[in-house]
Design a protein that fits this description.
By secondary structure, the chain is mostly beta strands. The chain is 0% helix and 47% strand. Strands 8, 10, 11, 13, 14 and 15 form a six-stranded mixed sheet that branches. The chain is globular, with a radius of gyration of 18 Å.
Amino acid sequence: RSGIWYLYIDKDWDNNGKFAPYETIAITPETTKNWHVHDFNFTEAGKYKAYMMLDGVVQGSTYFELFMDGTAASGVTTTTTTGVTTDYYEAANIIFCQAIDDKGQLTGISSQYYLGSKGSADVMVYLTNSGQPFKAKTLYVEVYDSETYETLYDYDITLEEDWDWVKFQQTFTTPGEYYFEVYTSDYIYVTTSGAVNIK
């Protein structure tokens, strides 16, 4: 698609899972290509998040960690099985519903919820790797607004490596359209949900 794209790079400045702006770059890709390569010179080690936007809509995003002088790799504690990549999670999926029992049976599947008189909506989230174990001990969840791409909630989920599904609850207090994005704690992308609408 033609137009000016923006590459946003955020950094976890305090190493606490909270990302804040690091660099913003305007990019004009070649209209005859469906890919783009951009060189950027990082000067600081750390955890980063990068995402591309066009017309205010996020087109893609990723997390990564940089080490300078080849120093940090040996000192990093990984919680994901060695050799696991994003491709391993290609069948991962998120489903929203009202309840999930201990056997993974879902009740009241829906993508629309209402705040009601109490001013909040509780949504159960079912994350599955379609029968394959997650091979991770920690997953990182980020919930963001579909219009502003502002992260409203983020948290870790602890699990066993042989689990192939997990459930958790998200409470919303503001109307809007939201997406869930999931990574392992080593910033390996797992999946992005469809939209959940809160009215």
